[in-house]
Amino acid sequence: MLALLLSSANEVMPTEALVQELWEGHPPVSAPTTLQTYVYQLRKLLLRGDREADGPRLVTKHGAYLLAVEDDMLDAVRFERLVNAAQRDLRANKLEPASAALCQALGLWHGSALADVVTGSRLAIYTTRLEELRVHATKLKIEAWLRMGRHHEVIAELKQLTAVHPLDEWFHLRLMEALSLASRRHEALEVYHRLRYILREELGLEPGSEMQELQRMVLATGHGPVLGRAAPNGRRGPALPQKADCVL
Length: 248
What we know:
- The chain contains 10 helices and 3 strands.
- The chain is mainly α.
- It has 3 domains: 70 residues, Winged helix-like DNA-binding domain superfamily/Winged helix DNA-binding domain (Arc Repressor Mutant, subunit A, Orthogonal Bundle); 81 residues; 76 residues, Alpha Horseshoe (Serine Threonine Protein Phosphatase 5, Tetratricopeptide repeat), CATH 1.25.40.10.
- A hairpin with a 2-residue loop joins strand 2 and strand 3.
- Helix 6 packs antiparallel against helix 7.
- The two termini are 33 Å apart.
């Protein structure tokens, strides 16, 4: 129940929605009474855990409930704010601040979202969204590091990510780029052929045009595009020095 209320923190949650989620659409006759017991126990827990005036408060409003929480107390809110800030920095080519924000955002994660909570349909949607945002943040961090010239440092992480997301072409593309820039041409080409095999076997598709173009570049020149900080005139500048400020 706490997870459900936190997923809609500072928003009114109708009693019916709570009942449907807690009993997965098949509430017993005693559900309203049981829900009141849960609310009572949760209020006691919140009072025992935080007696500060600005601590979480469970408020009853016209047959509905609202969990009032300061945004800074919620990791999910802090995570999204950091990712949004990093995206703005990346668009402005502020690579180091973007990298730092993304490292901080991803550092808030400790396993899967709500891993120890039995989820109904509403919470399942919420956790799926959080996991998608986590993947998005990971991609932004890898993009930042590649643009900073830190291709050696992302290879191990990208190998793991391509195994976890075998149909995600973006991770394979970035792994090919990193390997080719690290003068590991044969491994870069192996990534292409492995992805091509998976796509053909699973979906009957060929790799996308960007992946095919990168393969041609690696075959012709031994490496993909040279990544680095964009210079003011639009051309790529020299890669930034490597800094071990975040472990992937």
